[in-house]
């Protein structure tokens, strides 16, 4: 895998990133460390985490994923220098009071969260520090519409950038990024950074997969023209695009035991639990099989080969899953197959937006 540059930064990473939100919930620490070992062994030099992980978010597991990664760094001297490490500061808590007091995300909140992440991760610097979701009230995590009446923003983007700039100046953060962001948000962060000499966002981490392609509805142009890279998360649509739910026909409690979406109600209430999302996934999965591919191979290859995507974030629960996802690298999708994929999208659009 050739390295790719993230935005205008000097970060050069593999086009596959190891996502870690299962560490500390579905994945215990020994297994997580085995996954990290194997990922590095196979050449993946980019890992992504967040202060609020593990998922689904609970008070008991808040910060657990970063702690597990920090313990792995401590056990493996030299590993930290081989990796680009990304983590995230949570946006406004909105139902998660264990994240922080109050409903906003102030400059002091950003600094305090960064310091806590550095401690848990047992490192001196975060290579890419991202805002997990906007401080503004924007459509995200399955919410489709912007509603001005719900706007509760209290911390201007300029103030957020100044706080992040202070962390960069202090040497605690190298570059900054966004997540679950809108075209307006990306433009405003870049505009204010250039106007005031503050750090420029290098990346945006948004959902992108066969059944959720809203990135292509304008955000891709924004990122292309501004030189901001896309980190695509949920390429397998929380497991829907692996085919594991096709037989049961449900993502509810009767779905396969141990599957993340069938276990956690909070996840089912978001975009992945919609009947329309499952039905769409089943159509894509059937298409993959018609072309001699597994559903996961086609879904991953779709992200791996799209011009919009700089690096695809893969989340796994075992070393075997990691190997399968990495083995899909190099899979090509024919023009005919891509045309059939787009034909399905034209009919059903983005049911898991």
From TrEMBL:
Residues covered by the NADP-dependent oxidoreductase domain: 15-344
Keyword set includes Transcription regulation: no
Signal sequence, start to end: none
CDD domains: AKR_Tas-like (cd19094)
Xref: InterPro entries: AKR, AKR_Detox_Biosynth, NAD(P)_OxRdtase_dom_sf, NADP_OxRdtase_dom
Keyword list, A-Z: Oxidoreductase
Protein name: Aryl-alcohol dehydrogenase-like predicted oxidoreductase
Organism: Variovorax ginsengisoli
Lineage, uppermost ranks: Bacteria, Pseudomonadati, Pseudomonadota, Betaproteobacteria, Burkholderiales
């Amino acid at each position: 895998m050739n390295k790719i540059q993230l935005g205008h930064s000097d970060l050069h990473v593999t086009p596959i990133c190891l996502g870690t939100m299962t560490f500390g919930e579905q994945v215990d620490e020994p297994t997580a460390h085995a996954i990290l070992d194997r990922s590095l062994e196979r050449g993946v030099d980019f890992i992504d985490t967040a202060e609020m992980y593990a998922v689904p978010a609970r008070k008991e597991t808040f910060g657990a994923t970063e702690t597990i990664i920090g313990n792995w760094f401590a056990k493996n001297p030299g590993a930290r220098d081989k990796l680009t490490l990304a983590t995230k500061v949570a946006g406004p808590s909105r139902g998660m009071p264990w994240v922080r007091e109050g409903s906003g995300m102030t400059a002091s909140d950003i600094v305090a969260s960064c310091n806590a992440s550095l401690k848990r991760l047992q490192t001196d610097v975060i290579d890419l520090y991202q805002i997990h979701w906007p401080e503004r009230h924007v459509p995200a995590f399955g919410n489709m519409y912007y509603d001005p009446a719900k706007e509760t923003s209290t911390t201007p983007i300029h103030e957020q950038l100044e706080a992040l700039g202070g962390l960069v100046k202090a040497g605690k953060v190298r570059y900054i990024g966004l997540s679950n962001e809108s075209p307006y948000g990306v433009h405003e962060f870049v505009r204010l950074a250039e106007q005031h000499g503050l750090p420029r966002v290098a990346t945006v981490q948004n959902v992108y997969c066969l059944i959720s392609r809203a990135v292509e509805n304008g955000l891709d142009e924004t990122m292309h023209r501004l030189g901001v890279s896309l980190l695509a998360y949920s390429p397998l649509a929380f497991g829907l695009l692996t085919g594991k739910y096709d037989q049961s026909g449900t993502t509810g409690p009767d779905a396969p035991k141990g599957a993340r979406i069938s276990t956690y109600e909070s996840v089912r209430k978001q975009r992945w639990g919609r009947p329309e999302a499952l039905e769409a996934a089943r159509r894509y999965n059937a298409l993959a099989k018609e072309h001699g591919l597994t559903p996961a191979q086609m879904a991953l290859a779709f992200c791996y080969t799209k011009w919009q995507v700089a690096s695809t974030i893969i989340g796994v629960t075992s070393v075997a899953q990691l190997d399968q996802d990495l083995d899909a690298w190099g899979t090509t999708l024919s023009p005919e197959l891509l045309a059939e994929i787009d034909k399905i999208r034209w009919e059903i659009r983005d049911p898991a937006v």
